[in-house]
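question for whoever is on the cluster today: can someone run the full assembly for these? two chains, 597 residues total. i dont have access anymore since they changed the login thing
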Amino acid sequence: MSLSVDISCALGGFTLHAAFEAPDGVTVLFGRSGSGKTSVVKAIAGLLAPDEGRIVLNERVLFDGANKVKLPVHRRRLGYVFQDSRLFPHLTVRDNLCYAARVSGRGSPSPGHVGELLGISHLLDRRTHALSGGEAQRVAIGRALLSEPDMLLMDEPLASLDGPRKAEILPYLETLRRETGISILYVTHNMAEVARLATHIVLIDDGLVIRSGAPDEVLTDPEVVRLLGIRDAGAVLSARVAAPPEDGLSTLSISGGRLFLPAVDAPVGAALRVRILAQDVILSRARPEGLSALNILPVRVLAVRRGEGPGVIVQLLAGDDRLLARITRRSADALGIAAGTECYAVMKSVAVSQTDIAVGLQSGI
Amino acid sequence: MIGGLGPEEWQAVALSLKVSFWATVLSLPFGLACAMALARGRFMGRDVLNWLVHLPLILPPVVTGYLLLLSFGRRGPVGEFLENIFGITLAFQWTGAALAASIMAFPLMVRAMRLAIEAVDPKLEEAAATLGANRIAVFRTVTLPLILPGIIAGAVLAFAKAMGEFGATITFVSNIPGETRTVPSAIYAFLQVPGGETAALRLVGVAVGIAIGALILSEWLSRRVARRISGT
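^ ran it for u. tokens below:
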């Protein structure tokens, strides 16, 4: 199961040329607003016609410019979750959920399992205007899922929601991925969502795919930090819960050692993903002592990238995992940090917030 | 006397209701097609269609009636064709009155429907397509339910307009009692004879009542369109 895209399309200000593969799992299409992400998704769904190229989903040709193949939108079997939920205002939640079954003549199955998965079973008889933003978006996701699509396209599904509402939906998306096993193409420019959901990342800038691969590789590539945004740059680590919480801290094991982080609600042995921001990591040549920070990992410097500003981005290897640290150029020079340097990465436990920890997902599945 | 109206008056009211009913019902599909084309269509001649639809609103009704007579009269090109092929005669028949009424009411019907269609968010139709609905299914399950109140509002307005149509009707099909003498024609006829004022006044009451009723109904329906589309 995979989606293969290779399309060109003249848009208002620039030409979009997107070529990438989306394997099983959650492929995140990441880029700044206006980089052409939404146009790619629209082209895949058939809502926008590329000038040329091919779009193939599981050996099913959706679009082929050379052979004049253009499957109409309703026959592409792609569930599309829009930024605005686009629920039908004249239908109840139940009828919205069962819409696809109704138009395809499959009768009206009960939204049972999907309803429970998304926590919307109690809303079935409501009118759509009575839903909160988060509820409406969950119904929209359920509606798309119940159309039994081959793949789910999600175009910034959380962008129109405020912080708490976002946090409310993210766990549902993680559950969805785990329980249904459906492949998802997820568009966002929010790093937290990338870190929590992505099993594959496609970076897009000015209409071009500039990097794609597993999150731990792409996110810790110093060259892409400029695109990700310096404040959002950071690594995503795979971790396991090593011991139950003590003093409000959980002990996690990673390939390069142990991490003490704010208590995680997961049993011992559970797989986690932890996002560690580059700006939360301090480097030390000697093993520091008498320091309040609990997390000290021996690391080796892989690369140092100097930018325009006062800071440098240092790519580190801790065990098998890559980390990023953002330090000043002055410190890097003073400490003699260069590729190959052995040193220690220091992190405060409380620097990692709960929203940076995803339960039950490992990168690279 | 039935319901305070004399037999002649009652006949005019009954005929008006019949004429307006058929004028409305038969122009509904054409009205909806025109409204869809004007609201959504991107084609050459869209402006021309818009002018044509609105022409009866601004032309003197007598002119519209005379043009109808020229084309749909016994010796008019369309009239001759209809009579020879289908055996349908429109001139000086109640069916002609219905045609005149429907043409005069057409702009109002199309306007109301067009407003309703334009208020529908095309994004909802896109969403329906991604869920597997083809164009016909999208129209049937999303567009039509959302604009239904607008369609009814347009029909009600058209009905009221048809009830009041006078100029084009009298020019095209004259003023024949029992055949083409609708309420307005009857009022006009009563006013031409001495002592006809009371009968005319009763019909005026009927006409005013129907017009106000239709206006209230159509306003209420328009508000329902807005509510339905906003989902409240």
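summary bc i know u wont read the tokens: Residues 7-40 of chain B form the longest helix (34 residues). The two ends of chain B are 48 Å apart (CA to CA).
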